[in-house]
From TrEMBL:
This is GDSL-type esterase/lipase family protein. It comes from Azospirillum brasilense. Keywords: Plasmid, Signal. Pfam families: NonGDSL. The keyword Oxidoreductase does not apply. GO terms for molecular function: phosphatidylcholine lysophospholipase activity. It comes from the Bacteria. InterPro entries: Ester_Hydrolysis_Enzymes (IPR051532), NonGDSL (IPR057572), SGNH_hydro_sf (IPR036514).
Amino acid sequence: MTGRVLGGLMAAWVLWSGAAAASALCPVPPGADSAATGLVHSRAALAAGQPLTVVAMGSSSTEGVGATTITATYPAQLDAILEQRHATSAIQVLNKGIGGETAGANLVRFDKDVLAAKPDLVVWQVGTNDSFQKVPLDAFAATLRDGIARIRKTGADVILMNPQSFPGEAKVESYPAYASTVVALGRELDVPVLDRYRIMAWWLESRHFAADQVLSTDGLHLKDLSYRCLAEFVADMIDTPRVVSEKTAAR
């Protein structure tokens, strides 16, 4: 991972929420203290002790490839964290990830796997396979816009999660562009973004984690530890009401 790539992404507007609440196990880059906006519906439901339904849509990182058990996937761990934090609310996190899918393939399943569940919140993990399959960036962005609009039309909140960082990404020249496109759309559409690319790049560059601590033996998919961190990050985004703009550029 080069400092040039990491620096370019760190200059983005909305990068990640909940840094103040990050655990010692799951640290975040210095300066990544933006709070998630646009989650009014989900926060109101939890504050009132009402049920909360979250749909986790995406590909292998959502499905949980690399996790040792179903309960170690990030949606399952997110469910457990939210239930612990909000004991008076009935929490339901539905895992609708299918490995290998692009954003377009996700969108085909929206009616059945997302909207039919009448979610309060949709966490859409996206971008890795679009890069691998060389989906044009403008088509990728258009698909995200379409999906976000469809979710918002129902009144549900949205969180976007961009691709993971991994050592082998250097072989895919356009890979960082997909990660930054997700961040840029979040800024434009006022959708909170879990910038997993930035976080994992910092983990590896700072040597806080070695690659084999957070990536499976294939060097791409996550492990239980990194899935735990994703769950904590999303939970913190939901629970953090502050509104702070991220304007810190990488040095």
